[in-house]
Amino acid sequence: MIKAVGFDVDGTLYPNYQMLLCSLPSLLTVPRLMVYFGQIRKEVRQTKYDGSLHDIQAQLLANKLGISKDVARDRMERHLYNRWEHSFRCIKPFRQVRETLLAFKRSGLMLGALSDFPITNKLKFLKLDDIFDCSLSSEETGYLKPHSIPFLQMARRFELAPEEILYVGNSYPYDIVGASEVGMKTAWLSMRGENGRADIVFSNYYELRTRVLAEYAGKPSR
C-alpha cells in the first residue's frame, strides 16, 4: 500500500517535445547561453556545493561566459527562466493526466509535484494546480535530481516515510534511480518497455491509473 504519489513535471506530465518547441526562441536568440546552461546543469548534478542552486548556476555560467555572476544571473533569468515560463502557457498535458490524478485523489492518495525547474505557474497553466497537495522545485530544495534531498523533502512535505510514496518520472537516471535510492517505489514513463529498477513501467496514463489503483492503492481500477 502507498499513501502518496509524487510526479516529476517536465516530460512526465506533458510531452518533452512541447518544451523543446518552447525552447527554440531561446536557442535561436541566445544559442551560447542555452548550450552553456545545459552543460552547467550536468555539472551541478555531479557537484557537492554550499549555498543556493541559483548561485552556483550563476557562478558556473559566469565562468563559461567570462562575465560577472550578477550579469550571468540576469541573463539566465531574462533569456531562459522568464521566457520558458511565458512559453509554458501553450503546453498541454498528456491525455488522461487529469483523470488519473482525480482517480488517485478519490482513492485517498495524496499528490505532489517535484521539478528540477522553477514550478511557479506550471501547474496552473497545465490546469492541474487544484489537484496537487504540495509542490517543490529545485530552487526550494537546493539540489537537482537524482540527489536524495529533493525526494526526502517531498517525503517530509507529505509527512510520510519514503517507502509509502510512489514516484512517477520520465528520466531513468534522475527520477527512477534517485527515488529508488531513498526507498520510494517508482513508476517510469517509457515508450520502450524497459524496466530496470522501476516497479511500474507505463506508456500512457490510463495504464498507470489501472496499475496503481489495482496494485498499490488497494482499489479496483476504473
Keywords:
single chain, 222 residues, alpha/beta, Rossmann fold, 2 domains, 50% helix
Tell me what you see in this structure:
The chain contains 10 helices and 6 strands. The chain is of the alpha/beta class and 222 residues long. It has 2 domains: 4-14 and 93-215, Rossmann fold, CATH 3.40.50; 17-88, no CATH class. Helix 1 (16-29) crosses helix 2, helix 3 (53-65) crosses helix 4 and helix 5 (97-106) runs parallel beside helix 10. The model has no long low-confidence stretch (mean pLDDT 91).
The CATH architecture of the largest domain comes to: 3-Layer(aba) Sandwich
When the domains are counted, the total is 2
Let me know the number of strands: 6
Helix/strand class: alpha/beta
Write down the CATH topology of the largest domain. Rossmann fold
Q: What fraction of residues sit in β-strands?
A: 5-15%
Radius of gyration, in angstroms, nearest whole number: 18 Å
Question: Quick one: overall form?
Answer: globular
Report on the biggest sheet. Answer: 6 strands, parallel
Tell me roughly what share of residues is in helical segments.
40-55%
Major β-sheet strand ordering: 3-2-1-4-5-6
CATH class of the largest domain: Alpha Beta
What is the helix tally?
A: 10
The end-to-end distance, rounded to whole angstroms, is: 18 Å
SSE pattern, N- to C-terminal: EHHHHHEHEHHEHEEH
Mean pLDDT figure? 91
